[in-house]
Amino acid sequence: MYRFTELKYLADYIPFVYAPETKTPKTLFAAGIDCEMGFTSHGYEMIRVTVVDWATGKTVLDRTVYPYGKVIDLNTRFSGISNLDEGLKVDGVLYPTLSFKQARDALFEYINRSTIIIGHGLENDLAVMRLIHTRIVDTSILYTRQKSNKKMPLKDLVQMYL
Predict the structure, then answer these.
(1) Is the pLDDT of residue 13 over 80?
(2) Nearest residue to 69 via CA among 114, 103, 38, 31
């Protein structure tokens, strides 16, 4: 398995974009974002995107995503995804898997350039979404191990603060 991290290579087959400037009726002030990734013939790609409204705590987007490359490993142990063709069932409703473009368009219904994005290790999420964004709160940067200055795993932060 390999994981390309060089931004130029990543942008060669899926260009990076800014979130739109325009607002939609669904645009959020702040949103928690997380992506699950799998290994494909193009490296590490997004296979699920989840957006939570910071103000209400409600999940507003949770969809599986077909990657551009041929799937090698869905990384099920971490992603929880075992079959992209099954879509995602949430509260008894089946949501079909989206293409990458459809997923990013759905994301842009909830975020624009003014939206504050909150997450953990957001550099990975932003890279697989090919998103350039400047209003970010990344808990992996805010909360580091004091002695080593290394990033704390999310599960450790949850145990400490929740």
Answers:
(1) no
(2) 38
